Amino acid sequence: MSGVGFANRQWVRMSDGGANLQLLWVAGMTTVLVTRLYLAATGYPKVGNGTLHIAHALWGGLLMLAGLIVSLTFTGTVCLRVTALSGGIGLGLFIDEVGKFITQSNDYFFRPAAAVIYVLFAILVVITATARTPRTMSAGARLSAAAAIAATGPAEGLTPAQRTAILELLDGDDGEAAHAVRRFAELSPTRLGRNAFRTRAQRLLTAARHLVTQPLFVSVVVALFVVSRIAIDVVFISQAVPLLAGGSADPGHDGGAIIAAAVTRTVEAVFTVTGAVCWRRRRQTAIRLLKAALFVNLCFTQLFNFTDSQFVAITELPFLILVLLVLSSATRGQPVGAERLQQGRNE
After folding, report:
1. For residue 290, what pLDDT is reported?
2. What is the dihedral of CA 108, 111, 112, 116, to 10 degrees?
3. Distance in angstroms (rounded) separating the CA atoms of residues 272 and 232
4. Is the pLDDT of residue 335 over 70?
């Protein structure tokens, strides 16, 4: 039996790592929103007496610690879900008070705090997408990943999806270790995993995936995106011009954020209008331009949006996510060289 040196050890990606990360940031985002709504509705009460004030960031830290203890002490998919949920709620409680950590006055209502929170969860979403992106794995990493799934079988049972994942990971591997993992999985009990809620959710997801590929739906969403970028840009420019002339922002708004957002939203409008012009004859170019507008919005505009509008800014995100899904689906539906072929027909 050959040994493996420390320098040659590999980091093996968990098959459900992306799902666990998604649960973490969904729980975190939900916690921030629920906490803000609760505190606003109850008049921002304090937990403690005249001397002490127990900040909810402390409870967040304790929940994150609890998640770590579970993951370091127990094994299995259920424990990982508990870790993700506990850690996500704890992260939400912790980051909700970021305004106190970055200001000398311990200002919970520091306006850029909302943008900081947005950046954190945006980074987590990107990490989740990266974790879910298929990558080439070495034979050893594939074997380890399959063994990790199979190891949960005796205690929890294996779902049909887990068995399929094991077989796919071990495809083409005829070594003794691979045969042992397959045999171990075969001897494990079967877990009939899906409950009624998850089955309905999967059906809705399948229907949604089908919907975003329909040409009429795609055209409507793109048209709404273009019109909305132009309309919102006009609104922000009309607000920014008086501010540049020496005026002041309305109470509860940030003048600097409004001016900056007017600039980035103008860039978005230029990209979307150009994309709309190219939509019929140069579809791939149009999609790239529309995605560029989305990139500007999600990476720059939303920072100013959250600074100015605080958490009301989240109302714009569902539509932007829908546009991203539609454009991503349209990209996959465009065969390589389709744009050149269309240009040739038009010449």
Report:
1. 94
2. 50
3. 12
4. no
243: left (phi over 0), alpha (psi -120 to 50) or beta: alpha
Nearest to 100, CA basis, from 46, 167, 162, 139: 46
98-126 exposure pattern, b = at least 16 Cβ within 10 A, e = fewer: bbbeeeeeeeeebbbbbbbbbebbbebbe
Q: How far apart are CA 169 and CA 243, in angstroms?
A: 59
One-letter amino acid at 118 equals Y
Q: What pLDDT sits at residue 336?
A: 44
Q: Positive or negative CA dihedral for 303, 304, 310, 312?
A: negative
List, for residues 106-119, the tens digit of each pLDDT value. Answer: 888 898 999 999 99
pLDDT tens column, 208-256: 888 888 889 999 999 999 999 999 999 999 999 999 988 888 888 888 9
Distances (CA, A) of 201 to 195, 196, 198, 209, 310: 10, 9, 5, 12, 31
| Closest alpha carbon to 217 in 325, 334, 336 | 325
Helix, coil or strand: residue 192: coil
pLDDT band at 345, cuts 50/70/90? very low
CA distances 80 to 18, 23, 24, 131, 190, Å, are 12, 10, 10, 16, 20
Angle at CA of residue 76, ends 75 and 77, nearest 5° = 140
**Residues ≥6 apart with Cβ < 8 Å to 120:** 95
Is 66 in contact with 93 (CB distance < 8 Å)?
no
Cα 187 to the center of its chain, rounded Å: 37
Q: In this predicted model, which residue has the larger pLDDT, 40 or 92?
A: 92
- The alpha carbons of the chain give a radius of gyration, in whole angstroms, of 25
Number of Cβ atoms within 10 Å of the Cβ of 332: 8
Nearest to 59 by CA among 86, 94, 31: 94
